Description:
With 531 residues, the protein is of the alpha+beta class.
Amino acid sequence: xxxxxxxxxxxxxxxxxxxxxxxxxxxxxxxxxxxxxxxxxxxxxxxxxxxxxxxxxxxxxxxxxxxxxxxxxxxxxxxxxxxxxxxxxxxxxxxxxxxxxxxxxxxxxxxxxxxxxxxxxxxxxxxxxxxxxxxxxxxxxxxxxxxxxxxxxxxxxxxxxxxxxxxxxxxxxxxxxxxxxxxxxxxxxxxxxxxxxxxxxxxxxxxxxxxxxxxxxxxxxxxxxxxxxxxxxxxxxxxxxxxxxxxxxxxxxxxxxxxxxxxxxxxxxxxxxxxxxxxxxxxxxxxxxxxxxxxxxxxxxxxxxxxxxxxxxxxxxxxxxxxxxxxxxxxxxxxxxxxxxxxxxxxxxxxxxxxxxxxxxxxxxxxxxxxxxxxxxxxxxxxxxxxxxxxxxxxxxxxxxxxxxxxxxxxxxxxxxxxxxxxxxxxxxxxxxxxxxxxxxxxxxxxxxxxxxxxxxxxxxxxxxxxxxxxxxxxxxxxxxxxxxxxxxxxxxxxxxxxxxxxxxxxxxxxxxxxxxxxxxxxxxxxxxxx
Length: 531
């Protein structure tokens, strides 16, 4: 017996030690990640931005954790304090059989040996950490809410300033989601306490729930319904984010069906919340189930099924007529958003004849009418100018440059390095991080010209870049680009591959000032751990 006890104690110590090691590794990983991000932001002159983001995350995490852990702990402590206990359950189970008696036996065996206050505190801390970790990504929403400013324009449906939708509404939605998760976690802890204390038994009458469990459950469910009422109230404004394929924003169905239904659900959920608060004194375990079925059943029928039927059988047959006001809202607000509200509308006759004089008067426009499409041009660039399999054109950009031929609209793309396209036997750590470090050069062609073979006319081409009427490229190497996601180490003892050449390849060394310096032992250790 003693050896078994000793082995049990030893296993418990090993388990605690293993959990401590895992927790320590997680903490160290977080700290090193923060340090690496700080070094990177500082290297590009955005140290103040990083400090702002980090401080916002820390404050948000600490606030959410403190409130969440306290609320969950309070729910668990109240359940522990008012649970009726094993003895009463055994008295109830004496007149019953089966599951109730088994539940009583289990509660009697488990309850006396559980350190309730410590267990509840640990559960509150763990759940509080999980909730806080899930909310930390909302740091930007919190900052936008704190430093919000009015836009000065109002939406046509609710007559609210547009700033409400940019700054306040996302914060209210995030707050609502956090509170709902908090109620759920509080219910889990309270339910576990009541279950282990014997206040929740699966057997039917004489009673499945104790009076304390019913009171506590009614309070939590009432709070949940109050939050759902607020959630449906917020959903009214989210109608302006809808997209039914015809209208981006609130549509005819949204305004005439969804909006009244949401008001109905707000009232129904609020009334259910009040009824459940009253049930804290009546302690009926049937009423919460009926109210939950009523609220969620109504939301399914009136918020999902009814609007879909209304849209299909009433709106669709006369869609253009019914949606015209909302299409006008979409057009007007889109123009306002892009600064196009002051466009002067003039009639245009597509059959008017073009003359040589009008063409000459608009020569700058005629010479820059784009004929090339982006995707076919990128495919052509890939066939003609990738040169090697490990180079890739990720995107084609459209820009304007002052060239020898005048102010021209051009299309261009950078030749980036794609390490994944190296031969499998060449994808070693040294090749990926020390030797193949950068792409090289750019291709450029006018938007209006093509060769007799139907190919683009190149202003810039080849490796190293050859200019034909374009600005000369003095530094063609691309260390920071759109495609590559991994890190490279430069200025080491290994020469970097620059570009293929005959009979031997050309090598180089990084001469820029950007990037994070890892010369010291401390920084090498930091990045060695992190990467």
